[in-house]
Amino acid sequence: MYNPEIETMDREEIASLQLERLKATVKRCEEKVPFYRKKLRDAGVSWKDIKALDDVEKLPFTTKSDLRDNYPFGMFAVPTRDIVRIHASSGTTGQPTVVGYTARDIDVWSELMARSIVVGMGEKTDIIQVAYGYGLFTGGLGFHYGVERLGASAIPISGGNTKRQIRVMVDLGTTILCCTPSYALFMAETAAEMGVDFKQLKLKSGIFGAEPWSDQMRDKVERLLNLSAFDIYGLSEVMGPGVSIECEQKKGLHIFEDAFLAEIINPESGKRLAVGEQGELVFTTLNKEGLPLLRYRTRDITSLDDTPCECGRTHVRMRRVRGRTDDMLIIRGVNVFPSQIESVLMEIEGVSPHYQLIVDREAGLDILEVQVEVSEEMFSDRIQGLEEWQDVIRGEIQSYLGIGVKVILVEPRSLARSEGKAVRVVDNREV
Ligand code: DLL
Questions:
Q1: What is the pLDDT of residue 322?
Q2: Whose CA is nearest to atom 28 of ligand 1?
């Protein structure tokens, strides 16, 4: 049952718990998953070689393509008769991947989600609107089970039907909202159109994640929805939401280290990096039955922080994910994450938080176009001076990124809104 003490254990205790669980996971993979048996044999390593936590480095990596190659159930460590739930990753390209959970996995996940919600200010008395998509995506059901485990009240509204979301929030007195940060912004806009004032609502916190968002975007969301916004991270392969979450300090996301062992590697060389260095996040699951994973490469870029946190939790923190290796745009040789551009845009008064990046190649040269909506007030005030203003914004982005970009200011409400994960980049170079 719900056991927050595990989050304040001392570091040595955490390490010994992790070591014991790591050994058991490697043993399980070796014995139950032919894919891992072969991979471990090829790497010349066995669970018996795991004597210290650092021995994790001896293990081979697992990648998304391993899951694809073994689609659908080839990496499961139990027969499908023991699987009680199947989800799929939200990947938009290539073959899909599916993930499976035993009854015990669902139990552990519910527990981790209940703990996450508590970190995000949740209590038994809360009314929690779960506006992540229900279905193959892990967001909706992941949160739902966590809310029920905590004993709070779940409103399983799923994503979409935004006017109804607002009515439900007003009528039922929602106290915690759970959805993607981009959908939260869309809700703010819809509420304003409906004449609903967030100051009159009972919302106290929002647990937002599933996509990258900047600190500047957080300020906007907090201001517009009049709540405290927490960043939650997770991925279907490793479990779903509830791998890590920010505490009230909002200085990084505490990883639930009783369930996941995190490492940061150099994405090119695969070498492990020291705490504090930025690289690709890699997870080994520590107590999963259905789909245990060894050194799963997330492609998410971040760094770890093991300094003590003022909240008293001892679990290591990861910095907010600024993007994925595969979302990183390389524009004329410069690496650009959409979230970097977002943070510049959010600092400029009069631009709305709605933007899109279009990448093209003209005469062999990469062109990055930043389309950003002007806020309603600015649009009517400055219709004459839009061009100069475009220049100002272009200047800000250029001086931050060090590369030339094209800025196009577009009318309020002209860019597509998201009810789930926002699509920030349209890359026309591949087609
Ligand atoms: O997005 C699980 C989730 C649901 C997390 C609800 C949080 C809330 P996938 O669809 O498999 O799972 O996508 C996982 O989304 O590898 C990251 O690239 C990205 N991502 C998830 N959370 C965050 C976050 C869910 N807080 C992929 N910040 C991950 C930045 C995030 N990126």
A1: 86
A2: 212
Residues 210 and 284 in one domain: yes
What CATH code is carried by the domain that includes residue 290?
3.40.50.12780
For residue 309, report the distance from its CA to the centre of ligand 1, in Å: 23
Residues of the chain with confidence (pLDDT) below 50:
1
User: Does the pTM of the predicted model rise above 0.70?
Assistant: yes
Q: Ligand 1: which atom is nearest the Cα of residue 240?
A: 2
pLDDT of residue 91: 63
Q: Name the residue among 405, 419, 212, 242 with its Cα closest to residue 326.
A: 212
Q: What is the pLDDT of residue 111?
A: 97
Range of the domain at 292: 1-324
> Mean pLDDT in the chain?
94
CB 208 within 8 A of CB 180: yes
